[in-house]
Predict the structure of Heptahelical transmembrane protein 4.
Amino acid sequence: MASSTTSTSCEACKCVDGNMGKEEKRKYELIGYDELPEWLKDNEFIHGYYRCEWPMKETILSIFSIHNETLNVWSHLVGFLLFLCLTIFTAMVIPMDGSNKSGSIATWGDLVDMANVTVALRHDALAACLLLPPSAAAAGLSEDGQQIWPPNTSSSSLFHHRHAIQIQDHRLQDIGGTTAVDPVTRWPLFAYLAGAMVCLLTSSACHLLLCHSEHAAYLTLRLDYAGIAALIAASFYPLSYYTFLCHPSTQRLYMASITFLGAAAATASLLPAFQAPRLRPLRAALFSAMGASGVVPIAHKLVIYGATAPGAVASARFEALMGACYGVGVVVYAARVPERWAPGRFDLVGHSHQLFHLFVVAGAYAHYLAGLEYLKWRDFDKCY
Ligand SMILES: [Zn+2]
């Protein structure tokens, strides 16, 4: 569907090898901003190294070559792999549904181990995902299961966790010399991890494939928007579920609201009519409102539990860190710095969209750490 007009196609990106009579071979080269069709022009401060209307095979294979989208693709692809790893790691390390690996009910010994592992998890999750030896994940535990790492972690986190265990001890039911425990369900955390993976993967695919054609750009940008909606909506699940575990109607209200908003945003993202440039502010407002509305349940959490549940405060700290990461990322993205200050100098490395991607991955990881704080809190502090 190539157009013959220079305003909608980029013939300059293809040069013929010059051998008359032979099947024409085309070599696909990187081009400059001025040679781009209108639908590919996005940031005038990035001057070169653009792909344009390459065949799908060459477009996909360009994941292994250098152009101005290479780091955009890989930053979120690595982020996706990180979250895939965190999902597997979380599923393997933390007992599910009150059962240990042997399928029998968890004992007090399991509970202590789980407490220590959960604390150590926060420090070791990244190390484990970088494929360090399995012993690295357990390095924080002594042989009798006591926390010995990180050093000097008489930190409030560990203190509060042990304190929580002591408080909870009298609530646990003793069965035949062992103590039963019922870990809180993990599905809200896994829902968040799934949302993060969908967002990071669709973003990476969008950056890789968008240049193939105007139609590919049309499709992948919609999927990218839908992925963002999935991430924002899924981010509310651990917050709403674990915080309001003892307030079922409030819990259901928050979760139903964000599910409705997320579905509305994702659907709107996929509707062609909603993609008109003049509606861009409306789309931006929709996503921003979804994200900013997280302030409501977080403030609600601190009002109810701020003075009594260390887990509520610890998780709120990570949620604030997440908000700061996303906020700085959006400002950098909108301001288009640093390339604005030196146009053409950051075409390959260091432009605003790459920095934005790094802030998104950092913010998503901070939210995962908040999720671990919820597990630490709710595994030992339920509703009685
Ligand atoms: Zn992006």
